[in-house]
Amino acid sequence: MTSQTDPKLNAVVDAVRAIPAENFNAYGGGWPEEISTALLDAVFSMRAIYRSERPGVGVSGRLSTFRDAHSEAKNDLTLLHAVGEREIERIMGSTKSAQRLKSVVAIEAARRFVESGVVTANDFRSKDIAEMKKVYTSVRGLGWVTFEYFSMHLGVPGVKADTMIVRFVNRALEANGLQHVTPGEARSLVVEAHGQTGLGESLMHFDHAVWLSESDRA
Protein backbone atom coordinates (compact mmCIF):
# COMPACT_ATOMS: atom_id res chain seq x y z
CA MET A 1 0.00 0.00 0.00
CA THR A 2 1.08 3.54 -0.69
CA SER A 3 0.27 6.43 1.59
CA GLN A 4 -1.27 9.79 0.85
CA THR A 5 2.21 11.29 1.16
CA ASP A 6 3.66 8.95 -1.44
CA PRO A 7 4.90 11.09 -4.37
CA LYS A 8 3.74 8.46 -6.88
CA LEU A 9 0.20 8.54 -5.56
CA ASN A 10 0.25 12.34 -5.43
CA ALA A 11 1.38 12.47 -9.08
CA VAL A 12 -1.45 10.19 -10.18
CA VAL A 13 -4.03 12.08 -8.12
CA ASP A 14 -2.93 15.37 -9.68
CA ALA A 15 -3.22 13.86 -13.17
CA VAL A 16 -6.66 12.43 -12.38
CA ARG A 17 -7.94 15.80 -11.18
CA ALA A 18 -7.06 17.23 -14.61
CA ILE A 19 -9.40 14.76 -16.38
CA PRO A 20 -12.57 16.40 -17.77
CA ALA A 21 -15.49 15.96 -15.37
CA GLU A 22 -17.71 14.42 -18.04
CA ASN A 23 -15.33 11.47 -18.38
CA PHE A 24 -16.39 10.25 -14.94
CA ASN A 25 -19.97 9.77 -16.17
CA ALA A 26 -19.07 8.06 -19.44
CA TYR A 27 -18.91 4.44 -18.29
CA GLY A 28 -21.59 2.44 -20.07
CA GLY A 29 -22.02 -0.23 -17.44
CA GLY A 30 -20.32 -3.18 -19.11
CA TRP A 31 -22.28 -6.36 -19.88
CA PRO A 32 -23.64 -7.42 -16.46
CA GLU A 33 -26.17 -9.87 -17.93
CA GLU A 34 -24.23 -10.98 -21.01
CA ILE A 35 -21.35 -13.28 -20.08
CA SER A 36 -20.55 -14.26 -23.66
CA THR A 37 -20.40 -10.63 -24.78
CA ALA A 38 -18.20 -9.83 -21.79
CA LEU A 39 -15.86 -12.68 -22.67
CA LEU A 40 -15.54 -11.68 -26.33
CA ASP A 41 -15.00 -8.06 -25.32
CA ALA A 42 -12.20 -9.00 -22.93
CA VAL A 43 -10.48 -11.36 -25.36
CA PHE A 44 -10.71 -9.27 -28.50
CA SER A 45 -9.92 -5.90 -26.91
CA MET A 46 -6.35 -7.00 -26.16
CA ARG A 47 -3.98 -4.79 -28.18
CA ALA A 48 -6.84 -3.71 -30.42
CA ILE A 49 -8.71 -0.61 -31.56
CA TYR A 50 -11.90 -0.55 -29.54
CA ARG A 51 -13.93 2.09 -31.34
CA SER A 52 -13.63 3.22 -34.94
CA GLU A 53 -15.72 5.12 -37.47
CA ARG A 54 -14.48 2.79 -40.21
CA PRO A 55 -16.82 -0.12 -41.03
CA GLY A 56 -15.47 -3.47 -39.87
CA VAL A 57 -12.81 -1.88 -37.70
CA GLY A 58 -12.99 -1.78 -33.92
CA VAL A 59 -14.05 -4.27 -31.27
CA SER A 60 -17.19 -2.34 -30.31
CA GLY A 61 -18.77 -2.51 -33.75
CA ARG A 62 -17.93 -6.17 -34.19
CA LEU A 63 -19.49 -6.94 -30.80
CA SER A 64 -22.70 -5.25 -31.93
CA THR A 65 -22.71 -7.42 -35.04
CA PHE A 66 -22.19 -10.56 -32.96
CA ARG A 67 -24.95 -9.64 -30.51
CA ASP A 68 -27.39 -9.08 -33.37
CA ALA A 69 -26.44 -12.30 -35.15
CA HIS A 70 -26.38 -14.53 -32.07
CA SER A 71 -28.62 -12.90 -29.49
CA GLU A 72 -29.46 -16.28 -27.94
CA ALA A 73 -25.81 -16.77 -26.98
CA LYS A 74 -25.25 -13.39 -25.27
CA ASN A 75 -25.67 -14.83 -21.78
CA ASP A 76 -25.03 -18.51 -22.41
CA LEU A 77 -21.49 -19.86 -22.72
CA THR A 78 -22.81 -23.23 -23.85
CA LEU A 79 -24.42 -21.55 -26.83
CA LEU A 80 -21.32 -19.43 -27.43
CA HIS A 81 -19.28 -22.62 -27.63
CA ALA A 82 -21.82 -24.01 -30.08
CA VAL A 83 -21.44 -20.94 -32.30
CA GLY A 84 -17.87 -22.09 -32.86
CA GLU A 85 -14.52 -20.51 -33.47
CA ARG A 86 -14.96 -20.03 -37.23
CA GLU A 87 -18.12 -17.95 -36.88
CA ILE A 88 -16.55 -15.92 -34.08
CA GLU A 89 -13.49 -15.33 -36.25
CA ARG A 90 -15.70 -14.28 -39.16
CA ILE A 91 -17.40 -11.60 -37.08
CA MET A 92 -14.72 -10.58 -34.59
CA GLY A 93 -11.64 -10.92 -36.81
CA SER A 94 -8.53 -13.06 -36.98
CA THR A 95 -6.29 -11.33 -34.45
CA LYS A 96 -4.15 -13.40 -32.13
CA SER A 97 -2.95 -13.66 -28.54
CA ALA A 98 0.08 -15.78 -27.64
CA GLN A 99 0.19 -16.82 -31.32
CA ARG A 100 -3.31 -18.29 -31.05
CA LEU A 101 -6.41 -17.00 -32.82
CA LYS A 102 -8.49 -15.10 -30.31
CA SER A 103 -11.54 -16.96 -31.58
CA VAL A 104 -9.89 -20.22 -30.48
CA VAL A 105 -8.91 -18.68 -27.14
CA ALA A 106 -12.47 -17.47 -26.52
CA ILE A 107 -13.98 -20.86 -27.33
CA GLU A 108 -11.55 -22.64 -25.01
CA ALA A 109 -12.33 -20.18 -22.20
CA ALA A 110 -16.07 -20.73 -22.73
CA ARG A 111 -15.59 -24.50 -22.54
CA ARG A 112 -13.52 -24.29 -19.35
CA PHE A 113 -16.06 -22.07 -17.65
CA VAL A 114 -18.91 -24.40 -18.60
CA GLU A 115 -16.92 -27.34 -17.23
CA SER A 116 -16.60 -25.35 -13.98
CA GLY A 117 -20.36 -24.88 -13.76
CA VAL A 118 -20.47 -21.36 -15.20
CA VAL A 119 -22.90 -20.76 -18.06
CA THR A 120 -24.47 -17.38 -17.27
CA ALA A 121 -23.41 -14.09 -15.70
CA ASN A 122 -25.19 -14.98 -12.48
CA ASP A 123 -23.31 -18.29 -12.37
CA PHE A 124 -20.04 -16.37 -12.59
CA ARG A 125 -20.95 -13.95 -9.81
CA SER A 126 -22.00 -16.82 -7.55
CA LYS A 127 -18.53 -18.38 -7.70
CA ASP A 128 -15.33 -17.56 -5.81
CA ILE A 129 -13.55 -14.87 -7.83
CA ALA A 130 -10.11 -16.41 -7.21
CA GLU A 131 -11.33 -19.71 -8.63
CA MET A 132 -12.80 -17.95 -11.65
CA LYS A 133 -9.47 -16.23 -12.23
CA LYS A 134 -7.74 -19.62 -12.24
CA VAL A 135 -10.17 -20.94 -14.84
CA TYR A 136 -9.72 -17.92 -17.08
CA THR A 137 -5.94 -17.68 -16.86
CA SER A 138 -5.54 -21.42 -17.43
CA VAL A 139 -6.20 -20.66 -21.11
CA ARG A 140 -3.00 -19.85 -23.01
CA GLY A 141 -3.30 -16.30 -24.27
CA LEU A 142 -5.34 -14.98 -21.33
CA GLY A 143 -3.95 -13.27 -18.24
CA TRP A 144 -4.93 -11.43 -15.08
CA VAL A 145 -5.32 -8.02 -16.75
CA THR A 146 -8.06 -9.13 -19.13
CA PHE A 147 -9.62 -11.30 -16.44
CA GLU A 148 -10.17 -8.18 -14.41
CA TYR A 149 -11.67 -6.49 -17.47
CA PHE A 150 -13.93 -9.52 -18.03
CA SER A 151 -15.09 -9.56 -14.42
CA MET A 152 -15.62 -5.78 -14.43
CA HIS A 153 -17.96 -6.17 -17.39
CA LEU A 154 -19.96 -8.59 -15.23
CA GLY A 155 -20.26 -6.09 -12.38
CA VAL A 156 -17.26 -7.05 -10.23
CA PRO A 157 -15.39 -3.84 -9.21
CA GLY A 158 -11.85 -3.55 -10.51
CA VAL A 159 -9.31 -1.77 -12.68
CA LYS A 160 -8.13 -3.03 -16.04
CA ALA A 161 -4.41 -2.26 -16.01
CA ASP A 162 -4.15 -2.26 -19.78
CA THR A 163 -1.92 -0.18 -22.03
CA MET A 164 -3.93 3.01 -21.62
CA ILE A 165 -4.14 2.83 -17.82
CA VAL A 166 -0.44 2.03 -17.45
CA ARG A 167 0.47 4.76 -19.94
CA PHE A 168 -1.62 7.32 -18.03
CA VAL A 169 0.03 6.43 -14.73
CA ASN A 170 3.56 6.36 -16.12
CA ARG A 171 3.07 9.65 -17.94
CA ALA A 172 1.96 11.23 -14.65
CA LEU A 173 4.98 9.79 -12.89
CA GLU A 174 7.39 10.87 -15.62
CA ALA A 175 6.06 14.44 -15.48
CA ASN A 176 7.08 14.48 -11.82
CA GLY A 177 10.51 12.97 -12.36
CA LEU A 178 9.48 9.57 -11.04
CA GLN A 179 10.23 6.12 -12.42
CA HIS A 180 7.72 4.07 -14.38
CA VAL A 181 5.85 1.24 -12.65
CA THR A 182 4.58 -2.20 -13.61
CA PRO A 183 0.93 -2.86 -14.59
CA GLY A 184 0.27 -4.27 -11.12
CA GLU A 185 1.65 -1.16 -9.44
CA ALA A 186 -0.27 1.06 -11.87
CA ARG A 187 -3.47 -0.75 -10.91
CA SER A 188 -2.82 -0.20 -7.21
CA LEU A 189 -2.14 3.50 -7.75
CA VAL A 190 -5.39 3.93 -9.69
CA VAL A 191 -7.38 2.14 -6.99
CA GLU A 192 -5.83 4.35 -4.30
CA ALA A 193 -6.33 7.49 -6.36
CA HIS A 194 -10.00 6.61 -6.62
CA GLY A 195 -10.20 6.17 -2.87
CA GLN A 196 -8.48 9.50 -2.25
CA THR A 197 -10.42 11.60 -4.77
CA GLY A 198 -13.83 9.96 -4.60
CA LEU A 199 -14.35 10.83 -8.25
CA GLY A 200 -16.79 8.74 -10.27
CA GLU A 201 -19.86 6.82 -9.19
CA SER A 202 -17.79 3.65 -8.78
CA LEU A 203 -14.28 2.32 -9.27
CA MET A 204 -15.32 1.19 -12.74
CA HIS A 205 -16.53 4.69 -13.65
CA PHE A 206 -13.20 6.00 -12.38
CA ASP A 207 -11.19 3.41 -14.33
CA HIS A 208 -13.10 4.22 -17.50
CA ALA A 209 -12.52 7.97 -17.04
CA VAL A 210 -8.77 7.37 -16.83
CA TRP A 211 -8.85 5.00 -19.81
CA LEU A 212 -10.93 7.43 -21.88
CA SER A 213 -8.63 10.34 -21.07
CA GLU A 214 -5.56 8.47 -22.24
CA SER A 215 -7.35 6.94 -25.22
CA ASP A 216 -8.44 10.38 -26.42
CA ARG A 217 -4.90 11.65 -25.99
CA ALA A 218 -3.55 8.73 -28.05
Polypeptide structure, described:
The chain is an all-alpha fold and 218 residues long. The protein has twelve helices and two strands, in the order αααααββααααααα. The protein has helices at residues 7-17, 35-44, 59-69, 77-83, 85-92, 102-115, 121-126, 129-137, 144-153, 163-175, 183-197, 203-217, and strands at residues 96-97, 100-101. It is globular.
CATH architecture of the largest domain: Orthogonal Bundle
Strand content: under 5%
CATH class of the largest domain: Mainly Alpha
| Cα end-to-end separation | 30 Å
Contiguous uncertain segments of 5+ residues: none
List keywords for this structure.
218 residues; mainly alpha; Endonuclease III, domain 1; two-stranded antiparallel sheet; globular
